[in-house]
Design goal:
With about 425 residues, the protein is mainly beta. It is about 15% helix and about 40% strand. The protein has helices at about 1-5, 10, 20-35, 360-395, 415-420; strands at about 40-45, 45-50, 55-60, 70, 80, 90-95, 100-105, 115-120, 125-135, 140-145, 150, 155-165, 170-175, 180, 185-190, 195-205, 210-220, 220-230, 235-245, 255-265, 270-275, 285-290, 290-295, 305-310, 315-320, 335-340, 400-405, 435. The chain has a five-stranded mixed beta sheet, with no helix packed on it. A five-stranded mixed beta sheet has the order 11-19-20-23-22, with no helix packed on it. Strand 15 and strand 16 form a beta hairpin. The longest helix is centred in the last third of the chain and has 37 residues, at about 360-395. The protein is elongated, with a radius of gyration of 54 Å.
Length: about 425
């Protein structure tokens, strides 16, 4: 009970009994000579707390000898002396008091509460140790500003995400859908607070329309803090031509042909028209909105038919190459079908290159015919080469001639005798005969 009477001394600062003033002076003198540093018998831990939450300070004695434990704030004001609270701040509440521990809670923590708090043990010599309270402040606001609410395909837009008044400074991360992107951050410090702004430059395409761009904050005081904006991107029409009739069949003379043009874009295309490339549209062709109808095909209808669509961003088209076959035709060449050509290099990635599937079998047969034709050409070439070689051979070997003019002169001793003995001599030259063997 005498131990409980001692704290009334510090209470005298608030107007307590005068008899307790000597005790107060004694305590203040003892506090002045207590060394600062790590005590040999005192234990405490640093505290990190989010602004507005509760911080708990614990002063513990390893080997208790019933010495008095005291807790002081950064201004060296006594918060608790044993289990008595001289400081008139109701946010401090006693959690536990014993000979070996003094545990105090501080509610609704603010930045002004940050600093060193001292645990003192009145031993001989006195001991002191301090604990540091660190206050974390989450961002008070997270906002994305976008340079353009509506962008056009291929443009670069700038987005800025700002995290205001945090402590410590936040780290901002960017995501487009599920893909993380890299931004450029700047940090501004105001007093003890930090404002971070991150800039992201993004080139948008039609595939980005409706995709969320997310700004996410990494901060020890908060989890899963993020905000997002949805991209709105306008783009040229995407055009597709489909053959309604005949369904994946041959386009023969006398039969009908029906084509349908579909176009998708943002904004939705408002102008759509059919035309014939490099020629006038036949008079018997009927165009009704997105449909093209030829009721009676003939060879003069051969050509490329184009569907064009446009919106506020630009114009695109898709082509259909028509080849009309005889009524007896069973196959078709690979050139028949649909083709969409991109209007620019940028549109190549997004264009619907819908080549004809109806002509695939004809393409295979055309390849077979080409192989046979190649073989025939090789055989003909080889025969021509053989004829040329034979002709040159016979031209060089015209034949050998044998005569009977010198018959009987083989045994002559000299030339004169040979001439005399030759059959018929010179006088019978008109009767000489020549044989070709």
């Amino acid at each position: 009970m005498a131990g409980r009477a001692q704290p009334s001394g510090p209470a005298a600062c608030g107007g307590g009994a005068p008899g307790l003033l000597p005790l107060l002076l004694l305590l203040l003198s003892a506090a002045a000579i207590i060394p600062r540093g790590d005590g040999q018998n005192l234990v405490t831990e640093d505290v990190t707390v989010v602004e507005g939450d509760v911080a708990t300070i614990s002063c513990r004695v390893k080997n208790s000898d019933d010495s008095v434990i005291q807790l002081l704030n950064p201004n060296r004001q006594t918060i608790y002396f044993r289990d008595f609270r001289p400081l008139k701040d109701s946010r401090f509440q006693l959690v536990n008091f014993s000979n070996s521990e003094l545990r105090v809670s501080l509610t609704n923590v603010s930045i002004s509460d940050e600093g060193r708090y001292f645990c003192q043990l009145y031993t001989d010599p006195p001991q002191e140790i301090y604990t540091t309270i660190t206050v974390l402040v989450p961002p008070r606001n997270l906002v994305i500003d976008i340079q353009k609410e509506v962008a056009v395909e291929g443009e670069e837009i700038e987005l800025n995400c700002t995290a205001m008044a945090s402590r410590p400074a936040t780290t901002i991360r960017w995501f487009k859908g599920n893909k993380e992107l890299t931004g450029k951050s700047e940090v501004e410090q105001w007093s003890d607070m930090y404002t971070v702004t991150s800039q992201l430059v993004l080139k948008v395409g039609r595939e980005d329309d409706g995709v969320p761009v997310i700004c996410l904050v990494d901060h020890p005081a908060v989890k899963d803090l993020q905000t997002q904006r949805y991209l709105e991107v306008m783009y040229k029409p995407q055009v597709r031509v489909s053959q309604n009739y005949p369904v994946q069949g041959l386009t023969r003379e006398g039969e009908p042909l029906e084509l349908t043009c579909a176009a998708f874009g943002k904004p939705q295309p408002t102008d759509m028209r059919w035309l014939r490339v490099d020629d006038e549209m036949p008079q018997h062709v009927v165009v009704s909105g997105s449909n093209l109808l030829i009721s009676n095909l003939n060879k003069t209808d051969n050509g490329t038919y184009r569907c064009e669509a446009s919106n506020a961003v630009g114009k695109s088209h898709a082509d259909y190459m028509l080849f009309v076959y005889d009524t007896t035709a069973t196959t078709e060449p690979a050139v028949h079908g649909f083709t969409q050509l991109p209007n620019s290099a940028e549109e190549l990635d997004y264009g619907d290159l819908s080549d004809s599937r109806a002509g695939e079998e004809g393409a295979i047969r055309s390849v077979d015919h080409a192989v046979v034709g190649g073989v025939v050409a090789v055989v003909v070439f080889a025969m021509l080469c053989l004829l040329i070689v034979l002709g040159r051979y016979f031209a060089r070997h015209k034949g050998t001639y044998f005569t009977h003019e010198a018959k009987g002169a083989d045994d002559a001793a000299d030339a004169d005798t040979a001439i005399i003995n030759a059959e018929g001599g010179q006088n019978n030259s008109e009767e000489k005969k020549e044989y070709f063997i």
